[in-house]
Amino acid sequence: MTFVSFVLPPVIGYFVVAVLAVTPQTYTLRLALWPAVTLFALRAAVSVDTGLGAPFFVSSMIFIVTRTLDWTLSKEPLARHLRPTKGSQSTIMDALDLATTFRGHGWDWARGVYIPRETRPTHRRGFAFHIILSTGFHVFICGVFHSIILAFCPTGVGTLSGGSIFDETLQFHLRYLRASIISAFAAVSIYAIVQTLYDTCTIVGVIVFGQDPTQWPPAFDAPWRATSLSDLWGRRWHQFFRRIFLIQGGYPLLFLFGRMGFIIGAFLSSGALHYITLVSLNAQLEPWRLLVGFGMMAPGILIERAFKQFTGRRVGGVVGWIWTMAWLLLWGNLIVDACVRAGMYEIFRVSESVVPGQEVVRRLVMNFDAWLHAM
């Protein structure tokens, strides 16, 4: 009954608005429908207890509110200009694609969104084989690095009560060195989790539903090779939530403060959304860590823009890579610490049977950690 009463109404409303968004002369109807969809989604977010799945459920309800608002504000019907091979125009299929694509690949509203160059096999069988291998590889990476983080933080991190990456028993420089190492491993873990989820969805789309591989372009573009913050957040990191952050924070602050507000608003929106998602796990989580951690990415990008304005050169090369990684570690520590305090690593625990050898990894890390404490 909970599903029928609370979950089904916003989901049905979401797809109805998607159909209307690709149908001409439905602007007024969308305006009338959006408040109801929003109320249904917010009611579900605060009423339904999904346990460890709460972060995903709450964020999905927020996505429904934001995306339907985006579609509602468009006076003209949204146009799809890239369809699969042998595909024909269909209102229902276009609406389904609109509802399930977050980057807007192939849609007019997503012009300017960076889509990484395709390097995987283009024929279906080779593509499917590559995705299956990628899924297995990234599950392994996720399990290994998750084990490393738990070994560094054996107390509290693997539970919903949370913990911290900052060890108060260490001297200041060792404390932040250790926290930065954990944050770097956490970044790899988050990358592997997102890639695994995307690969899984790709397998379902291409193998189960027979979709064209071109409908599933790469999610990342080697983020570890980023030579500036602009390069990382604008191109190399996944762009799935870009539109969400622009609607929630970028465009409102663009109207108030111009281009600077656009950048600041997008990252503050990211911090706020991550906080709302994680606070569903731990109600005692403080918002400032995520707001500051994500928010400080905006000043970093503004510094890069000022550098280009005064020197005529973009931030890049080896020095740019060092600058990017240093800024990410400096403020990323707050983001990872918030995730740890919320108990996020209990959700993504990977079984030893799935990724063997985790005990060996844990022992190596704990020995290194003991060495740090002995210094």
Could you outline the blueprint of secondary structure elements for this entry?
Layout: H1 2-21, H2 27-47, H3 54-72, H4 91-100, H5 124-152, H6 172-208, H7 229-236, H8 242-257, H9 259-279, H10 288-295, H11 297-311, H12 317-342, H13 344-347, H14 358-374
Description:
There is one protein chain. Helices cover 67% and strands 0% of the residues. The chain has 375 residues and is mostly helical. Helix 5 (124-152) packs antiparallel against helix 6 (172-208).
In round numbers, the mean pLDDT is 90
Largest β-sheet summary: none
Please compute the radius of gyration using only Cα atoms: 22 Å
What's the tally of helices?
14
Strand content: under 5%
Helix content: 55-70%
What string, H for helix and E for strand, traces the elements in order? HHHHHHHHHHHHHH
Number of strands: 0
Distance between the termini: 58 Å
Low confidence ranges: none
Large-scale geometry: globular
Brief account:
The chain has 375 residues and is mainly α.
Give me some keywords for this one.
single chain, globular, mainly alpha, 14 helices
